[in-house]
Design brief:
Helix 5 links the parallel strand 2 and strand 3. By secondary structure, this protein is of the alpha/beta class. It starts with a helix and ends in a 12-residue tail after the last helix. The longest helix has 15 residues. The protein has nine helices and four strands, in the order H-H-E-H-H-E-H-E-H-E-H-H-H. The radius of gyration is 18 Å and the shape is globular. It has a single domain, classed as Protein-Tyrosine Phosphatase, Chain A.
Length: 231
């Protein structure tokens, strides 16, 4: 929580808005656990994905990125990560400023709370929702899929959120992230599976590595064959 004006000035705001709205947002997200990781081990293959943030997925306001890491990962274990490979929430802020993206919501698909302090989002006026999922079975996790779709719809159905982006990340911002974004595009935006996958991969800069996710997305009914299709 912000204790005084001096501290408030140091809070990084990804979304500009009145203080009352920020206060309401913090109250709404009061259950976010404090950052207290059991260890500072780097996520497996995290360094492999040097492009940490993708672009907005074509035709959407989804912004995919790999998980940012808390300062402690760089300051308490020295000489492990090159300066240019460090990736913090601050880097996402700078990306949004440079590219004129207004980030309104972050959906975290990782299965752990050890990577960063989620209260940073909350105190920045950015909504944060955790949808924990495994890196191998998200396509079979009906609860997580329904939760993702529900939260996206809920956010974008609010008039004041029009034009605001939703940041989505898993560990690498690639497989779980790609599956969820593509699933939404196919089911809610009537995008063909092959087009959804291509748009995501173009935006992220990497091909989805988990072929089971790609195959499952490709097996979904084509929008043009849907009973509600105009074609």
């Amino acid at each position: 929580m912000i204790q005084n004006k001096a501290k408030e000035k140091n809070i990084i705001h990804l979304v500009q808005g009145p203080t009352s709205a920020h206060s309401s947002q913090r109250k709404h997200n009061h259950a976010v656990a404090p950052f207290n990781p059991p260890n500072l081990k780097l996520p497996k293959e995290w360094l492999k994905y040097g492009t940490a943030i993708g672009n907005l997925v074509e035709g959407t306001l989804f912004l995919p990125f790999k998980t940012p890491l808390h300062d402690d990962y760089y300051t308490k274990v020295l000489n492990r990560v090159k300066k240019e490979d460090e990736f913090r929430i601050e880097d996402i802020r700078q990306f949004c400023i440079k590219n004129r993206v207004t980030l309104g919501l972050v959906l975290d698909l990782t299965g752990t709370d050890r990577y960063y302090d989620a209260n940073y989002w909350v105190d920045s006026g950015v909504s944060y929702i955790k949808i924990p999922s495994s890196g191998h079975e998200v396509h079979e996790n009906k609860h997580a899929i329904l939760k993702f779709i529900k939260e996206v719809e809920k956010f974008w159905n609010v008039p004041k959120n029009k034009g605001k982006a939703i940041g989505v990340h898993c560990t690498h911002g690639l497989n779980r992230t790609g599956y969820m974004i593509c699933r939404y595009m196919i089911e809610k935006m009537n995008v063909e599976p092959v087009d959804a996958i291509q748009r995501f991969q173009d935006a992220r800069g990497y091909e989805m590595a988990r072929q089971e996710y790609v195959k499952h997305l490709m097996s979904l009914p084509s929008p043009k064959n849907s009973p509600n299709s105009d074609q």
